[in-house]
Amino acid sequence: MYRVLIIDDEEPLREAIHILGDWEGLGVSEVREATDGKAGLELLRRERFDLVLVDMKMPELSGAELLQIAEQEFPDLLLIVISGYNDFEYTRQAIRSKVVDYLLKPVNRIDLNHALRKAVGVLEAKRKRESEFISRNITLNMSLPKLKEKMYLSIIDRSFKTQSNEAFLPLIGADGAASHFAVGLLRMLNLEKVRKERFHGDRDLLHFAVTNVMNENTDGQFESFSFASPKGEREFIAIFTMKGGYEADAAFLSLHHMKKAASTLKELFGIICAGGIGEPCSDSLSIAASYEQAKASLDTIDLLSLRGSLIAQGRAVNPVSRDNPSLTGRMPQIRSALEGGNVNHARSILSEFIRKCQETEGFTLGEADRTLQGFLLLLGEIAAQLGAMPPQIRSGKDSSLAPLGILSDFSSFEQFAGVLNDIFDRYAGEISRTVAGDRSSVLENIKAYIDNHYFEDIKISMFTEQYFLSREYLMKLFKGQYGYGIHEYVQKVRMDKAKALLRDPALKIQDISEMLGYKDKNYFSKAFRNYYDCSPSEFRLQLPGVEK
């Protein structure tokens, strides 16, 4: 049985490790905690532990300082380092020290237990006195792929600082002048279908399979390192590195490798891919420019002519300027039709847009992405203002199409059009039900409020905020139901009440003015005259029994 110590100043992280660790299955008998490096060191000096999980950034005594002390005082102690994504500088000591693994925050169950099993394996080997095994495995064995991925992403988003991270350059082959780099971007066009049918919905398993294929058939001369893009679940980034040779060779090998990977993914898993390759470069920081070229190449693939997998050659891309139809410009018409309950007319507007797109000279993947995102956003805004958001996405926690039961896969223009129509159907159905079912009760509530609060300062914004309706839509509904606009109806109620109150000779006109919500007697008189073509005083003179 083993004893474990967690040293971290963040209580939620300590608690998460407690919950996520498979302690019983790993043969761990006791898990203790220390709230900072200083307290942890004191505990290590008093008691024996087999394994320590230590955060690199802590008050009192940092993780890096603790590792240095541990090297001297506890040479047989196994350590697992925990660090944030932006803490490159804190990992240098971890590289120098004999850590078992390196975990990135936030810690998840799979990575944590993988690291713990690795540590337990080393402990078991030590107990069996397999010293040769220990000497090979107790050295740096942290999650180098994750660290490399972080480095590449920081280069791509142009936040990588060479001077402060020089120690890590050898990890990506950027410590020599003879290396060439190129970036490939591969998009899974039918990812959701494949994940569901071939991987039982397991995203991690799919990612593992794809990156394995993309990294296959490379050697020390030409290598591929790939990972899922954080900017889009469908996209995978591949960094190609070639030692020696010429840039033209790097370009050829990168394109060949991407095409072969796309072919293998189709053959093994039925995955349809589109991809782009950036131009090769000899400076590691130029990987950012190569990525941008790869992204541009991917985005400019013509969806109208796309048939199966396609990899676009990397080069500077100048998008062709075309006057393509705009769905955004048609949204006011679609909204008006939906508000009026005319779903078929709204659908015909969308169908006309789709037909126009098919008749253009080209419609790219990038245009398709922007159209889908814009349509989903604008249709969602309309639904929100009408109080008709589909129940599956009212929480707002998941912005994808999955909660709506829509597969966002499309590898052809016809499938893209199908996704647009599916989105429309989900929202239009909810809007239609809401407009038909809630309209009467909402209008009745507003009318009742005016009838009982006509003497107050009534503003339309009170109702738009309460019922999540747009001003224009609400005014249109109210007038259609009662024949008056809201302001007109407030005025009507006040004037009806004014006539009733004026019949009481005991009430002064000033009093009546205030009872109706008019603070100015003259303003009341003017409003009354405009409404009845006579002043309040003249109206009283016309009443039966009043002396002329």
TrEMBL record:
Record's keyword annotation contains DNA-binding: yes
Modified residues (4-aspartylphosphate): 55
Domain Response regulatory: 3-120
Keywords carried by this UniProt record: DNA-binding, Phosphoprotein, Transcription, Transcription regulation
Record-annotated HTH araC/xylS-type domain positions: 444-542
Gene3D superfamilies: 3.40.50.2300, Homeodomain-like (1.10.10.60)
SMART domains registered for this protein in UniProt: HTH_ARAC, REC
Keyword check for Transcription: yes
Name of the protein: Two-component system response regulator YesN
